[in-house]
Design goal:
With about 500 residues, the chain is of the alpha/beta class. It has two domains: about 350 residues, no CATH class; about 140 residues, Rossmann fold (3-Layer(aba) Sandwich). Helix content is about 65%, strand content about 5%. Strands 2-1-3-5-4 form a five-stranded mixed sheet, with helices on both faces.
Length: about 500
């Protein structure tokens, strides 16, 4: 076995080790629970449910058939590992085609040990398959630009169409490739135009449903981007997604990680532009910048808050290729020592996040498993469980096996979207503001049940004035008030559990 093949196998081994370790340990959270309950429905019901969702159908139908093998956390997330491996394969192929095997190997190691890729890629969501389809579409597109073979056109059409059916950021990808095509001087016009036409025709059956989703006025719980959000994006892509930079030492670590990442990224762009093929520069620049700039701009100037690091996770392979190509050229020249030091620091910062994630559950998402088990153990006959907001019931139901009656506030009655009011001026979060409580509904629950378990999460979004909690306090005695905190992100929040004995 030659040295290059050994390194490639080592990169694959590290990838599988990192992505499979603890895969089934964290509890599922809101989005994964939605994936599960939606995909568990019949195909017709899946189409009905995702009419109100900002996502195309591929992942939900894929998971629908995969769930026939089982529904444990590990099994639900296992397809994401497969698609992550497919992403790693596409990354290696694209980097080797655009540059050389050394750049491809470095890029593969960067991706295998990338915390951002691992954290978003191992969710039971559509982000891992989307990332795989995008990188493979760029691989075949790069070959198509230079060689124009029919086999490359078929591969490109297949994967760009799958991208569109997996996430609507596929349109940003298509635009990125169109701009790279123009920048390259419009080569192979006929075969590329035919590939695009075929992709649009293959996607056209879904256009009717997509228009229906758009007419539904889908809101978003994601923050409107500003300087703070951009800073968080830089922190995550720098490798410190599982790091709390409190105090002066923590801030120094954060700044150091960001500087190292920007240095490596800048070096990659510089060497591509000065010493490499400008066509590669245009291709990878548009891959990264167009989705980033467009999602940010749309989120700033409209109510479509589509800017999210999870949505931009598919940029990670391209960033690794850019950095990998720059490190490869630096190592071959006079910049060998700075290259080794910088890439070593990058691995160290990602290693900090991996260590924190594997040793401290505070960096996991909400622990709905523990919440359900606690109430299952502590509840009594005649208890009721009240959820606010309603979607708290999705991850809770995944684990709960008790007999207490489960009741949820009807969102249409209690909530309305209020785009004008902003409870978080610094974060720029749009709110689903609570307009008032349905006292008749609550009195009916209180009259039928001696004790009410009140479960809430993301109350700063849905009930910032805690009106429901105040009503329960005024009309009952709070016996238990417990916080299940397994997440540092403000956008995810704690799980709060109350047990209230109602007055008679």
């Amino acid at each position: 076995m030659n040295y290059g093949r050994f390194l490639l196998l080592l990169a694959v081994f590290l990838f599988l080790l990192v992505w499979l370790h603890h895969l089934g340990t964290p509890s599922i959270w809101f989005d994964e629970a939605f994936s599960y309950w939606t995909s568990s429905e019949t195909p017709g019901k899946i189409l009905e449910v995702i009419k109100g969702e900002p996502h195309p159908p591929f992942y939900f139908f894929f998971l629908h058939f995969w769930l026939k093998l089982g529904s444990s956390e590990f099994l639900m997330r296992l397809p994401s590992v497969f698609f992550g491996f497919l992403t790693l394969t596409g990354l290696y192929l694209l980097a080797a085609y655009l540059f050389d095997r050394r750049a491809a190997l470095i890029s593969s190691f960067l991706y295998s040990l990338n915390f951002m890729a691992f954290y978003s890629g191992t969710e039971a969501r559509m982000y891992a398959p989307f990332s795989a389809f995008v990188i493979l579409s760029f691989y075949f597109f790069a070959r198509l630009l230079k060689e124009g073979k029919k086999t490359d056109a078929i591969g490109y059409t297949f994967f760009i169409t799958l991208s569109l059916y997996t996430h609507y950021f596929g349109f940003f990808v298509l635009l990125s490739q169109a701009i790279a095509f123009i920048a390259a001087g419009l080569p192979r016009k006929r075969i590329i135009a035919v590939s695009w036409l075929c992709s649009i025709m293959l996607f056209s059956p879904w256009l009717f449903f997509m228009m229906g989703q758009a007419r539904g006025g889908i809101g978003s719980l994601m923050p409107s981007p500003n300087i703070h959000v951009l800073g968080n994006t830089l922190k995550i892509f720098s490798g410190l997604g599982a790091f709390i930079g409190n105090g002066y030492p923590g801030i120094l670590v954060l700044r150091a990680a960001e500087l190292v990442f920007l240095f490596l990224l800048g070096a990659g762009f510089y060497f591509m532009l000065i010493k490499g093929d400008k066509g590669n520069f245009y291709l990878l620049s548009t891959y990264v910048l167009i989705p980033l700039v467009l999602s940010f701009g749309i989120a700033v100037f409209t109510h479509l808050h589509i800017y999210s690091e999870r949505y931009l996770f598919f940029l990670s392979p391209a960033l690794c290729i850019i950095i990998g190509s720059g490190v490869s050229l630096m190592a071959a020249g006079k910049e060998k020592i700075p290259a080794i030091l910088a890439v070593s620091a990058f691995f160290i910062f990602n290693g900090i996040s991996f260590y924190n994630y594997n040793t401290d559950p505070i960096f996991w998402r909400q622990d709905w498993r523990s919440c359900a088990m606690y109430i299952e153990k502590s509840s009594q006959p005649g208890d009721a469980i009240l959820f606010n907001p309603p979607y708290c019931q999705l991850p809770f139901n995944f684990y709960y096996k008790g007999r207490a009656a489960k009741i949820q506030f009807t969102e249409k009655k209690v909530f309305k979207i209020d785009y004008k009011h902003d409870y978080f001026k610094d974060g720029g979060l749009e709110q689903f503001g609570l307009t008032g409580i349905d006292e008749a509904f609550l009195k009916k629950i209180a009259g039928n049940n001696k004790r009410i378990w009140f479960i809430t999460s993301q109350s700063f979004l849905y009930d910032p004035e805690k009106k429901i909690g105040k009503w329960l306090v005024e009309n009952g005695e709070v016996i238990i008030r417990k916080s299940v905190k397994f997440e540092t992100s403000e956008a995810t929040g704690d799980i709060y559990v109350w047990l209230v004995k109602m007055k008679r």
